[in-house]
Amino acid sequence: MNNSFLHEVVSSLSNPNWKELCFIVPNKRSALHLTQAIISQLDSPTIAPEIIDIDSFIHNLSRLDAPPKMEQLFALYNSYCQVVGIEERDDFVTFLGWGDTLLGDLDAIDRNLLHRKEVFSLLAGMQEIKAWGSEDNAFVHRYLSFWKGLPKIYDLFFSALLQKGYGTTGMLCREAVRNLEVFLEAQPNTTFIICGFNALTESESTLFQSILAQNRGKIYWDADTYFLQNPQEQSGHYLNSYKNWPYYDNQPFLGSHNTFLNQKEIEVIETAGRIAQAKQVGSILKELSITNHGWERVAVVLPDESLLNPVLHALPPEVNKLNITMGQPLQQQPIAVVVETLFDLQMNQTKKGFYYKSIVQILTHESIRTYCLKNELEDPKQFAQSIISGNQRFLTTNQLKKTRLFKDLDFLFSSWNNPIEAIQSICTVLQLLLTTAEPEDSRQLESIHLFLTLFHQLDLQLRMHPFIKQISDLRAIYKAQIGTHKLSYLGEPLEGLQIMGMLETRLLDFDTVILTQANEGILPAKAIDDSWIPYDMKKQFGLPTRDEKNAIFSYHFYRLMYRAKKVYILYDGQGNGLGGGEISRFVRQWATRLPENHSMRFFNQSVTFNTVTRQRLEIPKTPSLLKRLQEMAQKGLSPTALSNYIADPIRFYNNDVLRISENKELEESIAHHTLGTVIHNTLEELYTPYVAKQLTIQNIEKMQYILKQTLQKHFEDELGKSSHKKGKNLLLFTAAAHSIKRVLESDKKDILAGSTIELLGLEEYRKVTRTYSGLEHPITFHGVIDRIDRKDGVLRILDYKTGQTSSKELRPSEVSDCLSNSVYGKSFQVLFYSMLWAEDDPNSPFYAGVISVKNMSSGIMFLGFGAGRTKRTELQKEDLERFEKELEKLVIEIYTPDINFTEVV
What secondary structure, in 3-state letters, does 776-842 show? Predict the structure, then answer.
């Protein structure tokens, strides 16, 4: 892009002696583009100038190295331990929780060249004021002692790093300022060209002003006059302040321009969620491919790296070259799951053995399965399924040793006695996975190598700092470390579509910009003041606060738009998630103060998602299928199976014909169907002594007395001893007890009101057989009726339901609705049970209903036909006759060979 800021800088240089120039730029990426801009200006070969990013420049000046942050934290903790007594100090993992914040504050103090003693003294004084009036206890004393000892902690920390030739980034900045004069004297002929900075730390400002004051260079700001001259615009906050430098008393402010006001087309697009936003990016790129003559002029900017993968998957095939400046967090790699699960496996181990969930998770991970299959071992997934089906929550090492699989995978279950052994064990697993990774899967190989490097570094750190003795401490350090590692993408930085974060756009210009995630909370980022230094104190010392951070975001946003011709701004219009629903303030500001040459249009998402239109699944009735149906007819069709058919014949085919059910999971907290079984069994045991008897108040009170111990017994039958005593199970146990109590109270209330209740049966298994014209074999129906009684002499067929039940489900207009509409599934079931009972008692009028254990406040909900005042709940023999006729039609449909099982969509 020949109209870019970097081209303008290079073009402005008059007859430059390239070999004596040193360009200082904000980052390495801009250095590459500056090199390209210089090459485009050259007519003949020449000695290239030096181009250096600011971090490398400071590093060279300081003659110090900045070690990894974790090494800095170890050094800071050692200094802290030398000042704070053993009884008062925090352990290292606790220190990590606040030490990282302290390290950031110390770094900010040094970057901005503040007088440390003055800052520390004021901080200690403020903490004393804050603590004034509190109880004079050991905690307060310890807290204040720490702040008073901070200057000594820092001095020890600084000396410890300096002895090794190390320093924090802030320390490097101080040393760079101190060494600048010597550095400049050593390079008397070098002219420094400083390009494209915005928010400078005090150390950077001092370095640059010193270079300028000695007439050793020039500085170019990428500053648009629209923002410099408009006091309402935060974007010009820093640049306007630099105009007050003494240097500008007699020098021009280089780099200012008015390109922002050039013609621009802006489309602001509201999307429905993150994935939809990625799809919209793909749609825009596909449109651009028709007229686009160079992808390198197009940038997709992602303020939040979490959208990177969805965007990559949404790229159209027309994007044939690509460069990604963002790295993918190492903790998002599949291998990270293996490492986390290995930690879980060891840390969740008890005297009972290894926790089943960790065993299953490690055995079913794709990398472990691949290792097993490539080495022709038993498929670990089968062993994992056997654990679940056996309902084993813990497995001991001895139990594992009895399995054939353990002999091949014993390295996964080796004991970790200390952190060093843990690292060695993890590295063993990683090395084995490395041997089975596909050679062409470069990202998998690279991620394993990065994990191995990370754990080798941890091994060195732990050997140097032997106070880390617990596996939990190792895990905390590992988690702190992994967040700083990223897996880089390969690409040519000067070619192809450019996908980058907001900071990577500094000094770069594009014809077309696609900016995603333009929501409040992301652009600008939500203000999180992770600092011990209060806001007012930061203002006093000139440290950046949330106000300055917003100004920095504003500059980056608008600078990206300076030279763009076409801009797409995408934001999430949904209300959930960070910033969901609210568009960025920068977009609103731009729209409110829209320059004359800017066209801004607002759209809702235009991308259409590919919806798959498919034919309904149909299963023909083959001879083998008809044979299986005949077997079912002999054994008996249940109300659940027939309800499945009414809802969806394919569900009936899968669940009842093929007997395929969803993957079973081991129940550590009681599942819905198991809770139903427990409640059913408890009610059966409580009421059984009173079958064929009339219930009395004394019977009910006795059941209430033994309710909890009876429930506990059935709870433990399903989930093991003491399973009801903690966690979610305790809540469910209490809820179940309350539900059963309400069933008992309902009967008690009826008896107290003068009604009589005679129990005829509980959990009654009944079976009937029917022959139908056109079918060669009889059909058996069977089921278990939860409760049959007579209230005031009237027969009641009752079904317990532990799930949610609505009275509307028991209000069909006519009998045929129960067999044609799955909404009335519960109506169908109670009629089915009534048919089974009527085989022995065909003439009695009856009520059929549901006892909703979850909603006993509604009482027993009875099946009734009709609506409103015409609703009829007392059922007669004629109702069952109509039911049987409709049932016959349903069964003939199921067993007719020419009628396929057809999916309900």
Answer: CCCEEEEEEEEEEEEECCEEEEEEEECCCCCHHHHCCCCHHHHCCCHHHHHHHHHHHHHHHHHCCCC
CA distance 296 to 398: 61
As a whole number of angstroms, the distance between CA 576 and CA 579 comes to: 8
Q: Which residues are CB-neighbours of 688 under 8 A, at least 6 positions away?
A: 762
Domain enclosing residue 78, as ranges: 69-167
Please tell me the predicted confidence (pLDDT) of residue 27.
93
Encoded tokens for 205: 């400002």
Q: What is the pLDDT of residue 488?
A: 82
Whole-angstrom Cα distance, residue 554 to residue 546? Answer: 12
Examine the domain organization and report whether 766 and 890 are in the same domain: yes
The C-alpha atoms of residue 488 and residue 330 are separated, in whole angstroms, by 10
| Residues 742 and 812 both lie in one domain | yes
Q: Give bridge partners of residue 355 from the DSSP assignment.
A: 394
Residue 620: inside a domain: no
pLDDT in tens, 658-692: 876 544 444 444 445 667 788 889 999 999 999 99
In a domain, 735, yes or no: yes
Last residue of a domain, one of 167, 192, 224: 167
Tokens, residue 75: 């050094």
Considering the domain boundaries, does residue 522 fall inside one? yes
Q: Are residues 312 and 356 in the same domain?
A: no
Query: Do 310 and 384 fall into the same domain?
Result: no
**Residue 725, pLDDT score:** 66
HSE value, Cβ hemisphere, 13 Å, CA-based, for 398: 2
- Statement to judge: residues 502 and 525 lie in one domain: yes
Distance CA 819, CA 643 (A): 8
Which tens digit of pLDDT belongs to each residue from 319-360?
988 999 888 888 888 899 999 999 999 988 888 888 888 888
Distances (CA, A) of 170 to 104, 162, 420, 897: 9, 13, 33, 82
> What's the CATH code of the domain at 209?
3.40.50.300
Q: What pLDDT score does 173 carry?
A: 98
Does 831 lie in the same domain as 693? yes
0.85 cut: is pTM over it? no
Q: Final residue of a domain: which of 202, 231, 257?
A: 257
Residues 142, 858: Cα–Cα separation, whole Å = 60
| Number of folded domains that form the chain | 5
Strand pairing report for 794-801 and 223-224: unpaired
Give a yes or no: residue 624 inside a domain. no
Edge-to-edge strand list for the sheet holding 794-801:
757-770, 779-791, 794-801, 846-852, 861-862
Residues 458-508 pLDDT 10s:
999 999 998 899 999 999 999 999 988 888 876 778 889 999 999 999 999
* CATH number of the domain encompassing residue 825: 3.90.320
Q: Residue 424: pLDDT above 60?
A: yes
Q: What are the backbone dihedrals phi and psi of residue 481, each rounded to the nearest 5 degrees, phi first?
A: -75, -45
Q: Smallest Cα–Cα separation from 695: which of 786, 798, 792?
A: 792
Q: Are residues 405 and 523 in the same domain?
A: no
The CA-atom distances, in angstroms, between 546 and each of 43, 109, 584 are 47, 17, 16
Strand partners, 183: none
Residues 290 and 267 in one domain: yes
